[in-house]
Amino acid sequence: RVWTPKWFVNMEDRVEAYLGEEARINCMFTSAEGVGVTRSGEKKQIYYLESTMKYADRGTQFTDRVNGTISPGTAVLTISDVHIEDEVEFICHIKSLTEGREGRTKLTVFDAPAFPSIEGIQTGISVNEVNPSKIGTCEVKNGFPKPNITWYRNNTPLRPAQDEVEITLSVTVESSGLFSVRSELRMKVTKEDKDDQFYCEVTYFVPGGTRMTETNRINITVYYPSTAVSVWVESPKGKIKEGDSIMLQCRGNGNTPSSFLSFKHGEEELPSEQDTLVLHNATRLDSGVYLCISTDTDTFEEIAGNTTLFVHYLDPAVVIPEDTIVPQGQDLKATCNALSSVDTHTAWFKDGEEISKGNTLIVKDATFDTAGTYECVVTVPEIEGMETRGTLYVNVQGQPEIIKPDNTEMVQQVETTVSLHCKVRGFPAPRVEWTTADGKVTDEGVQSTVDVKVTSDITVFCNATNDFGTDALTFDIKAIKPKTVNPPKKKVKKESSGGVIIAVIIICILLLAILGSVLYFLYKKGKICGRSGKQDLTKEKSNKDNIVVEMKSDNTEEAVLLGVNGEKQPPNDQGGDYLDVQK
């Protein structure tokens, strides 16, 4: 008996590859003479190889993209640039001397799709729609195999439900052989859907498994009727006073373009801008109940809401009495009242300073300082800016009182003019008289001024008189003569002349010393006159002025006085060593 070893062909059930990439198909076998690879269906050979020879069959779609290698027990067919149409069954045929065996595998091609898109409906959807309304569409393009689309609402997948949810799917095969999928969602909406988020999930196949991606989230606008209406004061916040501008707003809890809002105050319809009513310069007459009515223009159903408005008021302050005359020494009493819808606070002011609280003003023992203008201020502490004012004018009756100035005694130069002032208080208004040495000058009023020309010492009297008495003030003016002021002497600059004089004196002394030395030398040589005799001093003097030079030394020789003409002078007045020049 002849024993023949068993042999076989083994291949994977499926080979996966991305579109445009490379696919490797392995065929494992034992004892072969040659290997041929064919496609299923028409079973057309595309490649042949053995240990000494290999080639690609001509005229197939793989001719230029296929290559094969063989090693003991394994043959590998490589397809480059994989196409979609390459997704077929491949057969590995192993031939022996007596028979042949085959192995089969399927090439699967993949291409990931583009990022999916979602588009929601732009118009609102009414809850009153009878049939499901379109929510939006999702689309994913150019995938292989065909991608799948699933709709979600708030992370919950949506499944078709009769009369509630409809999902329509359409698939397009592009010229490239890739798939594009479009899905449309329709749904019957309720009020609760107004805040829901919708999106799509796309799943697609890749070598070795599946992948998933999601679109952006979208919202829809849901129209639903109101079941309640709210009205409120938008501004001002807090309590309202007369003069304010009041803004009322109205809003229903529904959402529908077919609703209409209107305002009423009592039976009066008020003009408004849809959901807003503005009352300018409000008064107490604007207090009351305000009604806001929401009307559905489709069904003509009406729903109303209301609010109560109260406008606080503060009437003008009333001061009693407005004007008053108070005798000196008596008490002043006045009241200030203002009608108000809320509690008030009253204060009295004089010259900007608060002098009393409460609506009654009492001033004891009136003086001229009591006279003036009083202001009553009434405020509402609860409401900022709510106040009113009243005025009281007070005159204090009494004899004149002159307010003495700081100085009534003054010194003034003759032939000048001085202004004198006399300020008087009193009621009725005093009559002011000025008395001077030149006569009488009269001036009416509580403050009088007079100009006085000063010629000598003078006394001026200011007299103030009214029905209740008199007051006087004396001004003493002492006249002085103006002092004669000599014009200032011009200063002569001596700096330069002083230097010249000193230089001249030094030069003169030097010249005299030289002259004396020369004369002495001539005298010693006997060139001038005899040394033993004295000349007559009675000789007639020259018409010219003589300069006498007297010289004396410590020698025992006789001192000689010489004139300019060489005459000897008598030595009567000689003394110690000195040089005297006389002209």
From TrEMBL:
Its main location: membrane. One of its GO terms (biological process) is homophilic cell adhesion via plasma membrane adhesion molecules. SUPFAM superfamilies: Immunoglobulin (SSF48726). InterPro entries: CD80_C2-set, Ig-like_dom, Ig-like_dom_sf, Ig-like_fold, Ig_sub, Ig_sub2. GO terms for cellular component: cell-cell contact zone; membrane. Keywords: Disulfide bond, Membrane, Transmembrane, Transmembrane helix. SMART domains: IG (SM00409), IGc2 (SM00408). It is found in: Membrane. Residues 5-108, 116-219, 225-304, 316-393, 400-478 form the Ig-like domain. The keyword Cell membrane does not apply. CDD domains: IgC1 (cd00098). This is Melanoma cell adhesion molecule b. It comes from Sparus aurata.
